[in-house]
Design brief:
The protein is of the alpha+beta class. It contains 7 helices and 18 strands. A 4-stranded mixed β-sheet has the order 1-7-6-3.
Length: about 375
């Protein structure tokens, strides 16, 4: 059986020392490759393609070196906000930069990346500082603005001068002076009764409350930031001057509200009215047109000059004949291909109970009866000369 001998301790130490030395040497080489560092300051919300700086000029590099070294950007950000144009040696904005989304409440806001070149390898660090822009209006946290329900602050009638009614609380997500807020009283039911702190937003009484003061008080406060241009938000504060809660309920049931008309709703109402009116007028015109058309057709048929061809039923008999033989019988003449012969079919009399009382027609009556007896026989031919 053969046993594998482990290397002696001194050999292990030499191998470990060599590994540590190689790692330190690699770190030193990597440190020496960082040959430049530049910093740019840009405002947020720049458009895509906006110029940040000339990297080649600021790092002392030639544009040809950027091309031959296949310069590229390596960043730890999930979004690559910048792009390096190696043909011009400039750095431009690749994505819109929102300071609040990138850094939140952290100030100052910045991000960094490295520009790497090969053959030989070079590493240059670039830092981008983001300046805040006043792109967000103030947000009112208190009092909460509700659409349907009514919230009011109570002030007793025994309140002294300087009584704290409520405090308007607002924030601004911008930074620096863009986030400095000021509060102003724009409109009030009684401007001589309340005031608003310019910096803290506190609403206090400026005189003694009397019995003559209205129970329902409405204050409109404007919150402005210190940006250029400034942005603002409006908050409405309802105040009830009363000593008891039931009094407030009885007075605030019919609290006047400002009527705000919805432009979209008005547009839809006007559009619906126009559509209904159009349909009504269209139906009315169609009905009138049909009536006129039918009237014209009846007039045309009435005034037509075409001859009228009477229609007689198959068994119609003319009893008003003026010849020697009254038209009592119906008959049909059917001619064959032989012009010398023809068949005559006689029908029965229109009335079996008709008697001719004219004495002068007795012979004719007898001859008609004899002809009837002959014609009653089936298949009796009758030659007509």
């Amino acid at each position: 059986m053969a046993f594998e001998r482990s290397p002696p301790f001194c050999v292990k130490w030499r191998l470990y020392s060599r590994s540590v030395w190689l790692f330190l040497l690699f770190l030193c080489c990597l440190t020496h490759t960082v040959s430049g560092q530049i910093r740019y300051t840009i405002p947020e919300e720049l458009k895509k393609g906006s110029l940040i700086g000339n990297v080649a000029q600021d790092l002392g590099l030639d544009v040809q070196r950027l091309r031959s070294g296949r310069a590229r950007i390596v960043t730890r950000q999930s979004i690559q906000y910048t792009e390096l144009k190696t043909d011009k040696g400039i750095l431009v904005v690749n994505e819109r930069i929102d300071r609040e989304q990138l850094c939140g409440d952290v100030t100052p806001c910045s991000f960094s990346f490295e520009v790497i070149l090969e053959n030989p390898m070079e590493l240059h660090r670039v830092t981008i500082m983001i300046q805040d822009q006043n792109d967000n209006p103030p947000q009112v946290l208190y009092p909460v603005q509700t659409g349907g329900s009514l919230v009011a602050e109570m002030v007793p009638r025994s309140a002294d001068v300087g009584y704290l009614v409520t405090k308007v609380v607002a924030v601004d997500v911008d930074s620096g002076q863009n986030a400095w807020l000021s509060y102003k009283l724009q409109k009030a039911t009684d401007r001589a009764l309340f005031e608003v702190g310019l910096q803290n937003g506190e609403i206090r009484t400026i005189r003694q409350v009397t019995d003559k003061d209205a129970v329902k008080q409405r204050l409109t406060v404007i919150v402005e930031d210190n940006g250029q241009p400034s942005r603002s938000a409006t908050v409405i504060v309802n105040v009830a001057v009363a000593d008891s809660f039931p009094e407030v309920l009885s007075e605030f049931t019919d609290f006047p509200h400002d009527k705000e008309y919805n432009d979209n709703l008005t547009f839809y109402l006007v559009l619906a009215l126009a559509v209904v009116s159009f349909l009504f007028i269209t139906c009315l015109v169609v009905i009138i047109s049909v009536k006129i058309y039918r009237w014209r057709q009846s007039r045309v048929m009435y005034h037509s000059s075409l001859p009228v061809i009477p229609y007689y039923p198959p068994r119609y008999s003319d009893t008003l004949g003026t010849g020697t033989l009254p038209h009592v019988y119906n008959y049909e003449v059917c001619r064959t291909t032989d012009s010398r012969r023809s068949d005559c079919k006689f029908g029965r009399a229109g009335s079996q109970n008709v008697l001719i009382m004219d004495p002068s027609s007795t012979g004719t009556m007898q001859r008609m009866q004899s002809e009837k007896s002959i014609l009653d026989e089936p298949d009796s031919p009758l030659e007509v000369s």
